[in-house]
UniProtKB/TrEMBL annotation:
<feature type="domain" description="Fungal lipase-type">
    <location>
        <begin position="78"/>
        <end position="209"/>
    </location>
</feature>
<dbReference type="InterPro" id="IPR002921">
    <property type="entry name" value="Fungal_lipase-type"/>
</dbReference>
<dbReference type="InterPro" id="IPR029058">
    <property type="entry name" value="AB_hydrolase_fold"/>
</dbReference>
<dbReference type="GO" id="GO:0006629">
    <property type="term" value="P:lipid metabolic process"/>
</dbReference>
<dbReference type="Pfam" id="PF01764">
    <property type="entry name" value="Lipase_3"/>
</dbReference>
<dbReference type="InterPro" id="IPR051218">
    <property type="entry name" value="Sec_MonoDiacylglyc_Lipase"/>
</dbReference>
<protein>
    <submittedName>
        <fullName>Lipase (Class 3)</fullName>
    </submittedName>
</protein>
């Protein structure tokens, strides 16, 4: 495996190496405050803010957690995700009312809207505070955290047009919004948002279409672990069948196993070799 000693804080655009670091930053959101601060310091970030809030039922997930770390060159915000079964349950409910999208543009799933709204002011304040010397700004997350990372970056730009994040890296992201907001996102963030999907990961398949849509740019990890920036529809379908049949004793588990953050990191690092 290619050596990765620390975050390249000079990064300004997409690279597989930078995607690996954003995956590690997303994974770090699952750790304790102490572990986050220690790793941030190890990576060369001297400032950290933790964001943790609650929002109301009916959803079983009631906490939004994230952190922002900053240095004199880069600012990264990472959102924590949730268990695949849990997010699938409440995102699959097509009867849930929509929530107005960022900047009053389009619609998002109610759960995303409420979860982001509960924590967004703290995230915005940390990012704007830390970006005091034209640092690059990045958002990342896994699972539910991926959806919130995308929406937070878009909301920041729509409400403060001068602050367009340099990149958004998401892993195992569910469908986030309606077609109107997806198109607004793709116009503003063309070449900046990078959505990674690992083969049969079950979470990117919810909430259901046609009410909800993915944004355009996709990096697909096939059943053999190869990263593909293009995957024709028929080829993708065949590859997903290959993934399902790889474990003949437990084919249904493939969708959950492929969602694990460690699976994303492993696949990305293997592609760096």
């Amino acid at each position: 495996m290619t050596s990765m000693s620390t975050v390249d804080q000079s990064a300004t655009g997409y690279s597989l190496r930078h995607a690996c670091w954003m995956a590690h930053a997303a994974a770090l959101a699952y750790r304790s405050r102490e572990e986050i601060e220690a790793k941030a310091a190890e990576w060369g970030f001297d400032r950290v803010r933790h964001h943790e809030t609650t929002f109301s039922p009916p959803f079983p997930l009631e906490h939004t957690q994230a952190y922002t770390m900053g240095s004199d060159r880069m600012v990264i915000t990472a959102f924590r995700g949730t268990e695949p079964a849990q997010i699938r349950d409440w995102l699959s409910d097509a009867t849930t009312p929509p929530w107005p999208g960022p900047g009053k543009t389009g619609l998002v799933h109610y759960g995303f809207g409420e979860a982001l709204d509960s924590v967004y002011p703290r995230v915005r304040d940390a990012v704007t505070e830390f970006q005091d010397n034209e640092q690059t700004v990045w958002f990342t997350g896994h699972s539910l955290g991926a959806a919130l990372a995308l929406l937070a970056a878009l909301r920041l730009h729509l409400e403060e047009p001068n602050l367009l994040a340099d990149g958004v890296y998401t892993f195992g992201q569910p469908r986030v919004c309606d077609r109107v907001l997806a198109q607004a996102h793709d116009k503003a963030f063309r070449g900046r948002t990078h959505r990674f999907v690992n083969n049969n990961d079950i979470v990117p398949q919810v909430p259901p279409e046609p009410a909800y849509h993915h944004t355009a740019t996709l990096h697909y990890i096939d059943a053999s672990g190869k990263l593909r920036d293009r995957m024709p529809l028929l080829s993708a379908a065949a590859d997903r069948v290959k993934g399902f049949t790889a474990d003949m004793f437990s084919p249904a588990s493939d969708g959950v196993r492929d969602h694990l953050m460690k699976q994303y990191i492993s696949a990305l690092e293997k592609n760096l070799s």
